[in-house]
Amino acid sequence: KAALSAHFYVIRNGKIVGEGQILEMQSHKKQIKEVNEGTEFGLKVKSDSDILEGDILDIFSQEERKTKIL
Hints:
It is built from no helices and seven strands. It is mainly beta.
């Protein structure tokens, strides 16, 4: 599952060569907030490296948790 604002690693030849964040997602010419695996969609991303044909985007979410120490 990929969601708007999720982060990703750019993987090329089995090595992480960069990372970035999803800015926009589109499916069937409509803006979407998330998409499930196996669905075709388009991305607008911000990345610290170029994304080339054949690269893999490993998408993940970051979650901040606050805990109390008693």
